[in-house]
Design a protein that fits this description.
By secondary structure, the protein is mostly helical. It contains 3 helices and 2 strands, in the order H-H-H-E-E. It starts with a helix and ends with a strand.
Length: about 100
């Protein structure tokens, strides 16, 4: 199973379980003291599942290609940090 398939299954499962929990609120009496906590938990799980699904299906192919291109550029970068405690952000070109 690929990472993408796993994330998709987890995201959709979270949304499905949240929807089932929301539907159960119509049929199951929740004690007044637990009502807000239950709604908060359902909202968190809905948000979590929605963010997984959005990250998998919400971006365009050109956006993903741009992100991959940027990752490749960073990986091939010849800039190496040479900072000192006095100047920690100093960098120089690395020569192979």
């Amino acid at each position: 199973m690929t990472d993408r398939t796993f994330r998709t299954i987890v995201g959709w499962s979270a949304i499905l379980l949240s929807a089932i929990g929301l539907l159960l609120l119509f049929f199951v009496k929740v004690p007044d003291g637990n009502n807000e906590a239950l709604l908060l938990a359902l909202g968190i799980v809905f948000g979590w599942g929605g963010s997984v699904v959005q990250s998998e299906f919400g971006s365009t192919s050109s956006g993903r290609n741009l992100a991959q291109t940027n990752a490749d550029i960073v990986k091939q970068s010849t800039v190496a940090p040479t900072g000192t405690p006095a100047d920690p952000i100093s960098v120089t070109e690395a020569h192979p």
